Every structure is written in C-alpha cells, then in structure tokens.
Amino acid sequence: MNIVQTYRELLSDRIGRVFDNQEDAILKAAEICADSIGAGKLVFTFGTGHGSFAALEMFPRTGTVTGFRPIVESTMISFHRVLGDMGARQYRFIHAQEGYGKAIMSSHQTDPDDAMLVFSHSGINAVTLDMAICAKEIGMKLIGVTSIPHSSQVPSRHSCGKRLFELADVVIDTGAPLGDAGVEIEGLEHRVGATSTSVAIAVGQSINAATAELLVKRGAAPNVMVSPNTTGKEAADRQNDANYTDLWRRLSAR
C-alpha cells in the first residue's frame, strides 16, 4: 500500500466513524438550526485558523441553506503567508487573547433565538471559548464540532477553565486524535496527513443538509444556494439573488 492509499484509508475511516457514532448529535444540531432558521433567525458559524474553513463552507456555498451566517475574522484566517502582515505568529498570539471574542460578538446584532455553531479541533483557545460563552450568555443554543480525544487531554486556555465540549448544548465529536495527523513515514519523526478539517467540513455539510430536510418537512422549504457555473446561469443567479434578499431580510429585521 502506498502513502496515498494509506491516507485515503485513514480519512475514510475517520469520516466513517463520525457518521457511525455521531448521527444522533448531528440530527440534534440540525433541529437547533432548523428552529432558528425556520423562525426567521440566524445560525452563526465560527472558527479560527483551519476551523474557519468549515465555518465558511456553511454559506454561501452551493447546496447550502440561507440562514447560516459565518463569522470569520481576517486576523485569524489569513495567515497562509506565514511571515509578514497577518502572519502565523500574529495569529498564534491573537487567537489566545481572552476578550477578543467578546469584541467580535459585540459587532453582530445577535438574538437569543439565533444559534451558534463553533468548529474547533482542540476546543481550548481563548477566542473560541469567548464566542461560546457569549453565545450562551445571550441565550443562544450552542453546537460544538470538536475532537474530544484531543480536547480532553489538554487544559483550557481560558479563565473559565472549560473546553468547548464542556460548554456546548450539542457536541459532535470528530474523533480526531491528539496531534491530528495520522500517517507515519519511516525516517521522519513527525506524522503527516491531517484529517480534522476534512471531517469538520463533512459534519458541517451534513448539518446543512439535515437542516434543509427538517425545514421541508415543517412546510417551510428553505432558500438554497445553486451553482452559477452551469448552463442555467441566469436561473442560478436569480435563485442566489433571492437567497441574498432572504439573508438581508433576516439581518434588517434586527
């Protein structure tokens, strides 16, 4: 078996385990999301670093439901250049600053009937926990997508002393191990082949799909993003413009 096949088996196994073991939690999360979106409210999604990728995928992405609302701070996502402006060291510093998450939340007009969906592999860093705590204080239901095997082995980096899985109303455990990467190469000290981001995105899309199904069953079919890169581009643009109008209604009603 070559390394590509090894990684494929690793990723397939981890995704399979999540869907085998976390289906009930995913459906509970979808219930929370459908309650908020069906009431004309929002489901805020949040992540820092690579966790922000899953948050961004929730909307506007082909096949996603209007009503999901990513909060992604540029200071905690654009560190791909590593050095220079907004580099990796700045990110490493700022996502550990307690109080910054509270400032982020104050910039959004939230509602107790909104929900918060937080993606964090470790579930221990200050800004992530700020966001979770603020959501709970507002009265929002909190969903955490995190790794319990990782998080349970490391201490919180927030003065509350808790980790995301200890705060969330619904926890979806990605099962990714401490350290995340899982492929060993002979002669190399550290493992390669991270999986947590791929698993988190798969979980997020399953929540999105299950939310759509619940809304349809309730007689409130949601607006869904469609691909503009099709032969029916004009129809796709009309649909997506309707999605943006729906989002604006939800925001302007606040």
* CATH-level-4 superfamily name: Glucose-6-phosphate isomerase like protein, domain 1
Q: Which fold name fills CATH's third level, the topology?
A: Rossmann fold
- Globally, the shape reads globular
Number of DSSP strands? 5
Oligomer: single chain
| Low-confidence region ranges | none
Share in helix: 40-55%
Indicate how many domains the architecture comprises: 1
Question: Helices and strands, in N-to-C order?
Answer: HHEHEHHEHEHHEHH
Tell me the span between the first and last alpha carbons: 56 Å
Describe how the helices and strands are arranged:
Elements: H1 3-21, H2 23-38, E1 43-46, H3 51-57, E2 68-71, H4 88-94, H5 100-106, E3 115-119, H6 126-138, E4 141-146, H7 148-151, H8 164-167, E5 170-173, H9 196-217, H10 233-252
Helix pairs in contact: 1-9, 2-9, 3-9, 5-6
Description:
There is one protein chain. The protein is an alpha/beta fold and 254 residues long. It has one domain (3-252): Glucose-6-phosphate isomerase like protein, domain 1 (Rossmann fold, 3-Layer(aba) Sandwich), CATH 3.40.50.10490. It contains 10 helices and 5 strands; from the N terminus they run H-H-E-H-E-H-H-E-H-E-H-H-E-H-H. The chain has helices at residues 3-21, 23-38, 51-57, 88-94, 100-106, 126-138, 148-151, 164-167, 196-217, 233-252; strands at 43-46, 68-71, 115-119, 141-146, 170-173. It has a 5-stranded parallel β-sheet. Helix 6 links the parallel strand 3 (115-119) and strand 4. Helix 1 (3-21) runs parallel beside helix 9 and helix 5 crosses helix 6.
